[in-house]
Amino acid sequence: MLSIVRRIPPGRLATYGDVAALAGRPRAARAVGNIMRGCRRADVPCHRVIAAGGRLGGYGGREILKRSLLAAEGVIVSGMRVRQLDRVRWDP
């Protein structure tokens, strides 16, 4: 799953469910969320993986950091939700 997340380009996003489906495990969205929460690897852009419907998700308790990283990549975030998800959703 980490190899899939590494492929998400800057300014694009995938949901936990998207990553699970691309990994061949379409029912494993919660597992993806748990992996992203605990991942501290600099080579894995975990901030580009969000919850369903555009919610930011927990990001290991660092939601403000996630918002900042996404904003720096040009992603519009309003409150705790990504705006215009259909425009920034990654489709490999």
What does this structure look like?
The chain is mostly helical. The protein has a single domain, classed as Arc Repressor Mutant, subunit A (Orthogonal Bundle). The chain has five helices and four strands. It has helices spanning 2-6, 16-22, 29-38, 63-72, 85-88; strands at 14-15, 49-50, 77-78, 81-82. The strands form two sheets. It has a two-stranded parallel sheet.
Supply the CATH superfamily name: Winged helix-like DNA-binding domain superfamily/Winged helix DNA-binding domain
Sequence of strands across the biggest β-sheet: 1-2
Q: Could you say how many structural domains there are in total?
A: 1
* H/E element sequence: HEHHEHEEH
Low-confidence stretches: none
Which fold name is given in CATH as the topology? Arc Repressor Mutant, subunit A
CATH architecture: Orthogonal Bundle
Share of residues in strands: 5-15%
- Strand elements, count: 4
Q: Fraction of residues in helices? A: 25-40%
What is Rg?
A: 12 Å
Q: Main sheet?
A: 2 strands, parallel
Return the average pLDDT rounded to an integer: 93
Q: How many helix segments? A: 5
Helix/strand/pairing category: mainly alpha
For this structure, what is the CATH class?
A: Mainly Alpha
Q: How would the global form be characterised?
A: globular
Task: Write a brief structural summary.
This protein has 92 residues and is mainly α. It has helices at residues 2-6, 16-22, 29-38, 63-72, 85-88; strands spanning 14-15, 49-50, 77-78, 81-82. It is globular, with a radius of gyration of 12 Å.
